Amino acid sequence: MKQQDIANEVFRSVGEIAKRADLLKAGLREQDVHLLYKQGYIERVRHGYYKLTNGDTPKEEYILAGLIKQGIVCVESALFYYGYSDFAPREWTISVPYSFSRTVKVIREEVPVKAYYVQNEMYHLGETTGNFNGVTLPVYDRERTICDCFKYRTKLDNEIFNKAINAYVSDEKKNLANLSKYAKEMGVYTKMMNVMEVLLNG
């Protein structure tokens, strides 16, 4: 099988972006990958990540999935994902541990990203996965997303905040036990209940 055919097989199986390791695992040698790159058959997305030159421009979701080894979709992007906001963010909002600021700089070269830096012990709280345009990405669940709205209240537009809280209260999939649990762990319980009690009992 020719190198180009092997490369095609790899991209068919992994999606629009492949790691160098994917290409090597399929049987290509380092020099084969380099040759395909020199010939213009594949393009480097960033160090160690490639796409087919004649392929479509990779969706941002694919780029995020390929580049983010640490990063969870949060706040504005999560609100839009759950239908709690009509506002499609101009940049992806992702939560990352404090130690990953360098990674964020690299990602920003490929995808517009706004980072929320989170303490390690709070980082995985409420983490789940979601289907974004056919790509599976880590995302905070509804309850963590609402708690984040209170945590980052000053960074959010009033209209977005109010719509999100009201949409959550109306959501049949809400889990008030988890909401209460997360809010206590994140230190926003009192602030949140002042608003939520009125809406839930209204």
Please give a structural write-up.
- The protein folds into 2 domains: 3-58, Arc Repressor Mutant, subunit A (Orthogonal Bundle), CATH 1.10.10; 71-201, no CATH class.
- It is 50% helix and 18% strand.
- It has 11 helices and 8 strands.
- The strands form 3 sheets. A 3-stranded antiparallel β-sheet has the order 1-3-2, sandwiched between helices.
- β5 (92-97), α6 and β6 (113-118) form a beta-alpha-beta unit.
- The longest helix is centred in the last third of the chain and has 13 residues, at 158-170.
List keywords for this structure.
alpha+beta; 3-stranded mixed β-sheet; 11 helices; 18% strand
Short précis:
It is built from eleven helices and eight strands. With 202 residues, the protein is α+β, with helices and mostly antiparallel strands. It has two domains: 56 residues, Orthogonal Bundle (Arc Repressor Mutant, subunit A); 131 residues, no CATH class.
Could you spell the SSE succession in H and E letters? HEHHEEHEHEHEHEEHHHH
- The number of domains is 2
**Which overall shape is indicated by the principal axes computed on the Cα atoms?**
elongated
- Share of helical residues: 40-55%
